[in-house]
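Title: Comparing notes on inverse folding

I've been comparing how different people in this forum approach sequence design from structure. To keep things fair, I'm posting one structure and asking everyone to reply with a full sequence. Here's the target:
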């Protein structure tokens, strides 16, 4: 197979390296694991064989994530939502309006979040050797112990560039040439970048979006995978409607370039499957309203209050646009806006609070991420009600968020203060809320 050319797509100031190859009737986007290098991997015969097989039935897109490989290295590795935007940009550059997405290892979380956020661009998703959350928690006893994963990350960083680090993932039938893997390590990322990626892996938690995935889903894992136990994949399959779990056996490396994985992906992509439902979509909602608006209106009088409201509306709309949000509705003294990513919604809420303070008013804001019903240009559903109830509990100039939001903004630089458990009127269960700060 002739090796494909490497091209660049731009997301703002970030250049993203990608390749397109194959002439099959299906479109397939491969989201790599924690590190990659588009050109070095082609020197691996097992990898080349995997790509040749995919190219027979699909037009394939591969790319290096921001901060990795041939993509811009002088940038941070990015948040999950920035990485989701990058996938959209690469698909646009390749002329793909929709595709099947295949996520390996750490790339699985990206694929699952992409499917929930962009069902209209997602035909199917497959994840291999992946997880929704890696680290154990009180409500997630199947996860790995944090100290063990952190120690492993330290060991990998200390041995980076020797071939031993990534070699630990590729054992048995998937074991590659050690000299090649050492070169891949050095060309894919620096030790410092690797450390930041590892910290992001520890923080990533997409469990809250699993029930919002409405596209055909294949989950592949292995009970003999020592790095990512198959039970983490079964957890995903049990919570995504209609998902199918397959134990492909072998080591973690077999989940990236093993024959069983290739066979399952080919059957999944080429087989008939129902279309995605696009009447429901994962979205982040931001509610804002003016604190004490009635009292301020009485103090100022109708004419002056109307001028303040007009100025308030202009400033809120400016911040929503600046943060790539969409105004859903205006509530008189507040707004409901929707965002593709939670970090942008939180940043917008903080910016709105700052922007309106010079007018002599304060706003409270609430942010929640969940599955919303599309009703034309409007949004409905329990996620919208949750966002409204969270906003009602916020203090003046405070942006309150749910734990769902906090878990999805790993790597964003946002800081959160625990505000405890709360009952939200009309919303089931209790909710742990956090105050957001930059």
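Reply #1:
Here's my take.
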């Amino acid at each position: 197979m002739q090796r494909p050319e490497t091209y660049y797509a731009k997301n703002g100031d970030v250049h993203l390296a990608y390749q397109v190859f194959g002439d099959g009737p299906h479109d397939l986007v491969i989201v790599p694991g924690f590190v990659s290098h588009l050109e070095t991997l082609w020197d691996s015969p097992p990898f080349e064989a995997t790509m040749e097989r995919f190219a027979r039935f699909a037009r394939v897109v591969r790319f290096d994530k921001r901060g990795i490989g041939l993509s811009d290295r002088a940038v941070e590795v990015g948040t999950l939502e920035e990485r989701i935007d990058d996938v959209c940009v690469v698909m646009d550059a390749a002329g793909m309006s929709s595709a099947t997405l295949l996520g390996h290892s750490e790339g699985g979380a990206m694929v699952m979040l992409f499917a929930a956020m962009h069902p209209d661009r997602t035909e199917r998703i497959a994840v291999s050797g992946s997880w929704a959350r890696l680290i154990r928690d009180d409500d997630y006893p199947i996860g790995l112990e944090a100290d063990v994963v952190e120690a492993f990350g330290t060991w990998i960083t200390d041995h980076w560039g020797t071939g031993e680090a990534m070699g630990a993932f590729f054992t048995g039938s998937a074991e590659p040439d050690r000299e090649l893997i050492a070169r891949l390590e050095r060309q894919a990322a620096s030790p410092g970048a690797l450390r930041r990626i590892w910290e992001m892996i520890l923080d990533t938690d997409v469990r809250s979006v699993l029930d919002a995935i409405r596209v055909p889903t294949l989950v592949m894992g292995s009970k003999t995978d020592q790095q990512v136990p198959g039970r983490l994949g079964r957890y995903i399959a049990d919570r995504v409607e209609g998902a199918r779990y397959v134990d492909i056996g072998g080591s973690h490396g077999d989940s990236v370039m093993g024959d069983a994985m290739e066979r399952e992906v080919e059957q999944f992509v080429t087989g008939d499957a129902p279309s995605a439902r696009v009447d429901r979509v994962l979205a982040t909602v931001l509610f804002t309203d003016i604190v004490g608006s009635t009292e301020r209106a009485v103090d100022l009088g109708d004419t002056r209050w109307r001028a303040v409201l007009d100025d308030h509306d202009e400033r809120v709309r400016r911040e929503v646009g600046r943060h790539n949000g969409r105004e859903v509705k205006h509530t008189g003294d507040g707004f409901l806006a929707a965002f593709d990513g939670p970090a942008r919604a939180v940043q917008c809420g903080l910016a709105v609070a700052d922007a309106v303070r010079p007018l002599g008013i304060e706003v409270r804001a609430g942010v929640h991420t969940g599955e919303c019903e599309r009703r034309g240009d409007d949004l409905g559903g329990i996620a919208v009600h949750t966002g409204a109830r969270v906003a009602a509990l916020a203090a003046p100039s405070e942006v309150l968020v749910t734990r769902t939001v906090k878990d999805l903004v790993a790597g964003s630089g946002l800081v959160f203060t625990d505000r405890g458990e709360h009952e939200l009127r009309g919303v089931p269960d209790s909710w742990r809320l956090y105050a957001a700060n930059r």
